[in-house]
Specification:
The protein is mainly alpha-helical and 102 residues long. Helices cover 49% and strands 10% of the residues. Strands 1-2 form a two-stranded antiparallel ribbon.
């Protein structure tokens, strides 16, 4: 059960340094996901399209263009087989996949 106001007002990337201020870190995963969501335009996509976008999506630690390993791409296709040929972008398995990709 999620209490929406608590979720919206939460600061999961923050350290409460004192009663006066908090130290917050930027979540770079959100930037990557935002780019994918914009490029895909739906809640799910074909694995080939996702692999193409991710191979050309830079981060602070990963340059592009790059070749995704075959086992990584195979795992994306495994996720799609359980979801009618598409990969849900907001599912746990895709989040894990992105963690391994970056």
């Amino acid at each position: 059960r999620v209490i929406v106001p608590n979720y919206i007002m939460s600061r999961p990337n923050c350290l409460e340094a004192s009663n006066l201020y908090a130290i917050c870190c930027r979540n770079h995963c959100e930037d990557l996901m935002s780019h994918l969501e914009t490029q895909i335009g739906s809640a799910a996509a074909e694995p080939r399209k996702i692999a193409e976008l991710v191979a050309n999506l830079p981060s602070d630690t990963v340059p592009v263009p790059r070749n995704l390993s075959q086992p990584l791409v195979d795992r994306l296709f495994q996720v799609s087989r359980n979801n009618y040929g598409r990969v849900p972008l907001h599912g746990r398995l895709f989040a894990q996949w992105m963690h391994h990709a970056y």
